Amino acid sequence: QHSLFSVFSKFGPLYSVRAHRNAAVAGPGYYAIIKFYSAGDASRAQRACNGQRLFQKSPLKVCVCTKQKGFQQQVLALHSNKCQELANHYFGFNGWSSRIITLQNVSGFDGGNEELGETLQKRSVKYLCAVEVTLPNHGVRTRGVALGEADIENSEDPLEFVTATRRVQKLAVGKALSSAFQKILLVVLENGKVAVEYDSTQEELTDSLTEEDLKGLVQVSELALEQFDLEEEVLSDLSFDDELPSREMPSN
Fold this sequence. Notes:
Distance between the termini: 40 Å
Shape: flat
Helix content: 10-25%
Number of helices: 5
Strand content: 15-25%
Structural class: alpha+beta
Radius of gyration: 22 Å
Number of strands: 7
Largest sheet: 3 strands, antiparallel
Strand order of the largest sheet: 3-4-5
């Protein structure tokens, strides 16, 4: 997988690289599935690498996969880690920034519907987060609001409560960051230059609120928390031991 990544990443950022053994009926050997963010990058890689001996004695057969007609696949928001990888690749580490506007505990805000006797044993922790992403060189600023939630099996255990709270905070921040990035359209030109547009079709009611209004969002009694429950793709290799993903622009 490392060799495949080294070769194909030269054509553009990769979403994933997976190598597998051939099925028994196909004989010994391997096949790989390489996913690019850009269809243009994938096409260039296919044309350049097909039939070449890249890192082995026999030539590789490289094909571009196409979606099967009639097969509907659920489209999920790109994970915040992947959004940051793309931002760092196209804008540079100092070409964008993010900051947490508010991170609020909204546990129990949807009404206490727990049955008597279960309250002390099991409850959920919910955090609502608002994040702002800024691309100063392109004059683009977007916001994302999302909800993070997890159940605590035994709320009397302090360690479990602290661990769950930390996990939910990071989940809410990550979802909000992903939500903010969904409103940014990247147009990658043939010469490698990148144009940025704001996708107004992804706007939410919260985008028109001031920061003060966002910080007081949970005080609105009509607030429906479910509208902020962004369904984000799941990455299995994430660790919740990292710091909350907030990045500020370095000062000059």
